[in-house]
Amino acid sequence: MMYEIDLTDVVIALTKALEFTNEDLGYHHERVAYIAASIGKKLNLSEKDYETLFWAAYLHDLGAGAKLVDREIHNLDKYDTAHANFGYELLKDVPFFTEVAQVIKHHHTKYINFTSAEKNSPLAFLSQIIFAADQVDLYLKPNKLALLQRNEIERFFRKNVQILFNEDIVEAFLDLSQKESFWLDLTTYYIEDRLKTLRPKTKILAGEQGLKLLTVPFARIIDAKSPFTERHSLKVAALSGQLAEIAGLPGQKSLIEIAGLLHDIGKLSVSNKILEKNGPLNDEEYALIKTHPYYTYYLLIQVTGFEKVAQWAGYHHEQPNGQGYPFKLTKDQLDLPSRILAVADKWVALRENRPYRDALSIENALDILENMAQKEIVDPEVVKLLKENIDYLEKSQEEEIGQITGKTNEPLLS
Questions:
Q1: 20 to 30 Å CA-CA from 357: which of 99, 155, 184, 296?
Q2: Could you tell me the pLDDT band of residue 411, with boundaries at 50, 70 and 90?
């Protein structure tokens, strides 16, 4: 089956989740995308190069997403290439984003450190634009009007022509800088609105495997947030897909797997101090935990074509008895894929180590899940399917993960 997807929708929605990792990242990707896109327009880039630049600008800190949990963005070295290389590794095999990956790889490389051949490469040039845009945003002091910082930043760029920055890029930036509106557009109030006029209007037809590969990097970042969840999303995706097939929903299997990959994307908003607490949560901590499926739903619903994915992923803590969260839906409001994903999430969690307990045996996990089913915390029929097929599901888990990621022996993030 083929799906029509707006790639910019996907990029914007999923990148927004990265900003959950720390408040200091708020609107960083949007500002860098705005600055880079404005420079790209000024330089009259081709449509294809402009698309690549825009997406790479939004995704440039993808490799830092898992590393910025409970840290400050300004503690990162401005010229550190480690997270740039990591972002490249995450995206290099993703259809539609192979060139974006190349651009991200060098977005922290100083102009002077490119070889002569690289300086003339179109993709390296796009990297240099993002590097310049990123430096502008990192240079800006958040508590001071951007317009009042214009002269200082202009001096910084003039001083570093042919050292940090390409001369043509500096010239384009300095020309843009003359407009007060350019700096005023960088304020939080207007940046997203201004980006609407700059975003590429690119819709692509993606096959099921291509769509999964598009979302796998984000699942990896989600899972890397804590050592206790290092493959959680991959396992939930695999189990959800298998249960969907057994339940007679083979046509929906791929979208259900995508929902599994992304179901915890809202959890990037939750501090590791809460996720890794070795003991019961207090009321405030539990309230914060309850935010994550809400964020998951509203991040994914922004992507045209992901309406069902948003529901299945965002409803994974809803319960047939109506006592789940955050929407308090009841059984008649939860379709079968939603109920499947909820069971898969709980099963995988029971079988994983947690700060307060070791992974449970299959027998103990089934006992707990069946008890939940009796109370309609989870769907009894889905639990029955799981129990009847447990040997097959457990033995085929790694093979199923390999099919989703396009790889066997899928490595963990480090």
A1: 296
A2: very low
